[in-house]
């Protein structure tokens, strides 16, 4: 059994890959013994992949703005 570590649960109190029942307890303000167990289901794995694809699309759609920002920054430092 693999559990999320304390530093992770401090940053992310409701981890994405965790036991559903434990997450439900935490969402309802109840406590659990220890940290949530890492649990990767097919459903949440594909949901995570979908969210990564959304992020990649967002970032790649703004690459031109990043390039302009870099160029302006370089001009200001000369």
How would you characterize this protein structure?
- It is a single chain.
- This protein has 78 residues and is mainly alpha-helical.
- It has two domains: 1-40, no CATH class; 41-78.
- 60% of the residues lie in helices and 0% in strands.
- The protein has four helices and no strands.
- It has helices at residues 6-11, 20-27, 42-60, 63-76.
- The longest helix has 19 residues, at 42-60.
- The mean pLDDT is 89.
Give me the strand/helix succession. Answer: HHHH
The total of helices stands at 4
Q: Report the C-alpha radius of gyration, rounded.
A: 19 Å
Outline: elongated
The helix content is 55-70%
Overall tally of structural domains: 2
Distance between the termini: 55 Å
Strand segment tally:
0
SSE-based structural type: mainly alpha
Largest sheet: none
Tell me the strand percentage band.
under 5%
How would you name the oligomeric state of the polypeptide chains in this document?
single chain
Q: Taking all residues together, what is the mean pLDDT?
A: 89
| Low-pLDDT ranges | none
């Amino acid at each position: 059994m693999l559990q999320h570590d304390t530093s992770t649960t401090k940053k992310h109190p409701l981890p994405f890959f965790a036991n559903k029942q434990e997450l439900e307890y935490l969402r309802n303000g109840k406590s659990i013994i220890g940290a949530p167990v890492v649990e990767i289901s097919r459903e949440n794995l594909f949901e995570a992949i979908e969210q990564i694809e959304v992020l990649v699309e967002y970032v790649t759609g703004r690459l031109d703005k990043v390039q302009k920002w870099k160029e302006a920054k370089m001009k200001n430092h000369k």
